[in-house]
Amino acid sequence: xxxxxxxxxxxxxxxxxxxxxxxxxxxxxxxxxxxxxxxxxxxxxxxxxxxxxxxxxxxxxxxxxxxxxxxxxxxxxxxxxxxxxxxxxxxxxxxxxxxxxxxxxxxxxxx
Length: 111
Hints:
The protein is of the alpha+beta class. It has helices spanning 2-27, 29-38, 46-52, and strands spanning 59-65, 69-75, 81-88, 93-98, 103-109. Helix content is 39%, strand content 32%. It has a 5-stranded antiparallel β-sheet with strand order 1-2-3-4-5. The protein is globular, with a radius of gyration of 22 Å.
């Protein structure tokens, strides 16, 4: 009898917890994008990136950030890359490319 009660209690707890967990992850998708993109605020190219890319939709993925260049890919919620940003630090040159059919979006030196 004790084993049956313990088994039923365990199953009830597992079923009860699984419903809450799925709704929590769905509601946290948008804040995660905002938190990741907030790290971009201190970058010199941030204003231009925000001007051309909807940062509430695309999540930044910093591919490389070394002494010479910074490469950032911007992915949508499905994980598909929509934009690529290449910033040359020494010359403050920013190149922003739409990976869809649009091609080059911005290619200039940041003042």
